[in-house]
């Protein structure tokens, strides 16, 4: 129905899965792709960081974009796409929980738009997660938006990686995101890379892999 698609554009899009079957997995990772990309694109990260026994779920954004405007635009400028994207993530979190995997072994991760969505979802639904990874992203909304998120991230390990001169994600927003996550009780590691473009580098993949291995007690 066209009306439903307009109100909830990401409802019913496909989810690609890599790794262990969800019912057998020790940890589940929701991987969120960026603008103009696909689930298959973001799953290349899974190939690099999977320690074994993990399920990686990569949902598809309608039209290859989670929301139409910049992540720093007024929230209403990105509706109804933003709320639909947050519901899409929430549906996967519920599916993971119904498979018997607790929040403490659920990781939210993404690149660019996907990183922004993962970070925003976690803050709006604060609890202890297995991990949170934001690659070239930050919290969504304009600079003057009040960040009055409720709840605690309760020691959730967080990795934020970005370029110091990213054309799409200002360093100031990455720093602000780290501050807000710390204020909510997360354990945040930030790595800012000089001269890097809007991309994912090997050091970020190594850091993400370390976070994954720590979840299952591997060095």
Cα distance, first to last residue? 50 Å
Superfamily at the CATH H level? Answer: Alpha/Beta hydrolase fold, catalytic domain
Q: What is the number of domains?
A: 1
CATH topology: the name is Rossmann fold
> Cα-atom Rg, whole angstroms?
16 Å
CATH architectural label: 3-Layer(aba) Sandwich
Q: Please count the beta strands (DSSP E, at least 2 residues each).
A: 7
SS field, number of helical segments:
6
The best one-word shape is globular
Mean model confidence by pLDDT:
95
Q: Strands of the largest sheet, in order across it?
A: 1-3-2-4-5-6-7
General description of the model:
The structure is a single chain. The protein has 219 residues and is an alpha/beta fold. 34% of the residues lie in helices and 19% in strands. The chain contains six helices and seven strands, in the order H-E-E-H-E-H-E-H-E-E-H-E-H. The protein has a seven-stranded mixed beta sheet, sandwiched between helices. Helix 3 (81-98) packs across helix 4. The chain is globular and about 45 Å long. The mean pLDDT is 95.
Short key terms for the protein model shown above:
219 residues, alpha/beta, Rossmann fold, 6 helices, 7 strands, globular
């Amino acid at each position: 129905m066209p009306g439903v698609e307009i109100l909830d554009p990401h409802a019913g899009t496909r989810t690609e899965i890599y790794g262990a079957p969800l019912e057998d997995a020790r940890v589940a990772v929701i991987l969120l792709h960026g603008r103009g990309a696909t689930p298959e694109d973001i799953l290349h990260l899974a190939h690099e960081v999977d320690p074994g026994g993990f399920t990686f779920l990569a949902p598809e954004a309608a039209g290859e974009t989670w929301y139409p405007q910049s992540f720093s635009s007024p929230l209403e400028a990105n509706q109804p796409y933003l709320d639909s994207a947050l519901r899409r993530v929430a549906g996967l979190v519920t599916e993971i929980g119904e498979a018997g995997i607790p929040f403490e072994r659920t990781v939210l991760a993404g690149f660019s738009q996907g990183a922004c969505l993962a970070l925003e979802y976690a803050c709006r639904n604060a609890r202890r997660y297995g991990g949170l990874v934001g690659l070239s992203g930050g919290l969504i909304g304009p600079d003057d938006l009040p960040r009055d998120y409720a709840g605690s991230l309760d020691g959730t390990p967080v990795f934020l990686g970005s370029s110091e001169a990213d054309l799409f994600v200002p360093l100031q927003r990455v720093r602000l995101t780290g501050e807000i996550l710390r204020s909510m009780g997360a354990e945040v590691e930030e790595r800012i890379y000089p001269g890097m473009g809007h991309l994912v580098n090997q050091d970020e993949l190594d850091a993400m892999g370390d976070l994954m291995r720590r979840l299952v007690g591997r060095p």
